[in-house]
Write a structure and sequence with these properties.
The protein has about 230 residues and is an alpha+beta fold. It has 7 helices and 10 strands. The radius of gyration is 17 Å and the shape is globular.
Length: about 230
């Protein structure tokens, strides 16, 4: 595996690089485990290293979507706006449980508390709707990047927020029109948005958003959507 010096990176974020991610093949079958660090090095990604991840979208009662701006301490895509929470399940028995993606949903509950301070009882796995999976690859810089099969999780609920500033620089609720304005600004390089969020926003997001009360018909657990030119 590639080696890289992390001395110039945020100490807390470097500690998280030791977490063990779930390695998978292109059909999302478990094939092993490796550190978050190794999973996010472009040198390894270029050799095909792929891990399991998730993206959570939380909407309030007014149908507004909760966005976060990643902190400047983040190793990949610092300062970028993105959906509510993006992370990965760990290589543990609990978070590797596969029926109805319950392990991934447990991981999402854990990270929603860690990043946004949402009490675990407000975001139970049972309340999350697992919609589908996307496969994408993206470089953050010359060293770090992402290569994931990403489980898309939706939840509509009022939640209490107490974000960790080491994880999140800012947060806001947006309407569809406000997000569309942000996407235009991103194209003009006036703000930065994570590549996976742009991919989802340019394909499925607004149709799902229009049907928050009727998501059942949009569930697709059989297909993995290949959404990167590099996938």
């Amino acid at each position: 595996m590639a080696e890289i010096n992390t001395d110039n990176l945020d100490e807390k974020q470097v500690q998280l690089l030791a977490e063990m991610c779930i390695l998978i093949d292109v059909d999302d079958r478990k094939i092993g485990a490796d550190t978050k660090k190794n999973c996010h090095l472009n040198a390894n990604i270029d050799k095909g290293l792929l891990h399991r991840a998730f993206s959570v979208f939380i909407f309030n009662k007014e149908d507004k979507l909760l966005l976060q701006q990643r902190s400047d301490a983040k190793i990949t895509f610092p300062g970028c706006y993105t959906n509510t929470c993006c992370s990965h399940p760990l290589h543990t028995a609990s978070e590797m449980e596969e029926p109805e993606a319950i392990g991934v949903r447990k991981a999402a509950q854990r990270r929603l508390q860690a990043e946004l301070g949402i009490p675990v009882e407000q975001v139970t796995p049972e309340e999350m709707t697992y919609l589908t999976r996307i496969h994408y690859k993206a470089q953050s810089d010359g060293v770090w990047g992402e290569h994931e099969i990403d489980y898309i999780l939706f939840l509509q609920k009022e939640v209490d927020l107490s974000p960790d500033p080491n994880e999140i620089k800012s947060h806001c609720y947006v309407t569809q029109e406000e997000l569309k304005e942000m996407l235009v600004k991103a194209k003009r390089k006036e703000l930065d948005i994570t590549p996976w969020f742009i991919l989802i926003a340019e394909t499925f997001l607004f149709q799902w958003w229009d049907n928050l009360q009727n998501l059942e018909e949009f569930k697709d657990h059989d297909h993995i959507h290949r959404m990167s030119d590099e996938s």
